[in-house]
Amino acid sequence: MGLTLALLLMISAVTGVLLALKKDVEIIQPPTQKGVSKNLAEWKSLDQISAIAEKALHETYPEQKENFVDRMDARPSKGIVKVLFEEGNWEVQVDGKSGEVKSIEKRYSDWIESLHDGSIISDGFKLFSMNFLGIGLLFLIATGIWLWYGPKRVRLKKRK
User: Fold this and answer.
1) In angstroms, rounded to a whole number, what is the distance separating the alpha carbons of residues 56 and 54?
2) Domain count, the chain
3) What CATH number corresponds to the domain at position 63?
4) Which among 29, 78, 86, 149 would be 20 to 30 A from 122, CA to CA?
């Protein structure tokens, strides 16, 4: 049980550090580009942006022809839409107004997050491992406090 908890803690700690650095390390997550307009009324429709992103990915990487849009992350403050694909951690950033493709990059932060929370194996494993990790950490905290406080308490009783 201790080895399992130690392994989960190590994975969680390492991936947690990587996720904390995702905005600062380009290989983990590509930097957010800037578009020409923050005004959503001037932007292309999500359907158009999706088509632009798919075309750009499929033309640049023909082996990705069967990879389609999973979700879109609109950033009005940056004037950009991040289009994320179903497989391979691909991200295409498209200017919301002009439709210009600003970047086509691999995004490893999603994979690291699924490793971090255990969902890389299954949702059931995620539920089990995160609860096991949380309860294990509470147990370690409680026993650590007792190991620190217990001897002090014994010494105080001996003095009296």
Assistant:
1) 5
2) 2
3) 3.10.450
4) 29
**Phi and psi angles of residue 84, each rounded to the nearest 5 degrees, phi first:** -105, 140
CA-based radius of gyration for the chain: 23
Which residues, at least 6 apart from 49, have a Cβ–Cβ distance to it below 8 Å?
43, 72, 81, 83, 94, 96, 99
Boundary residue ending a domain (91, 107, 123)? 107
Q: Is there a single domain that holds both residue 34 and residue 101?
A: yes
Quote the DSSP letter at residue 103: E
pLDDT by 10s per residue, the chain, length 160: 889 889 999 999 999 999 999 999 999 999 999 999 999 999 999 999 999 999 999 999 999 999 999 999 999 999 999 999 999 999 999 999 999 999 999 999 999 999 999 999 999 999 999 999 999 999 999 999 999 998 988 888 888 7
pTM, two decimals, is 0.78
Q: Are 88 and 105 in contact (CB under 8 A)?
A: no
Is 10 in the same domain as 41? no
117 is in which domain, residue-wise?
Answer: 1-27+111-160
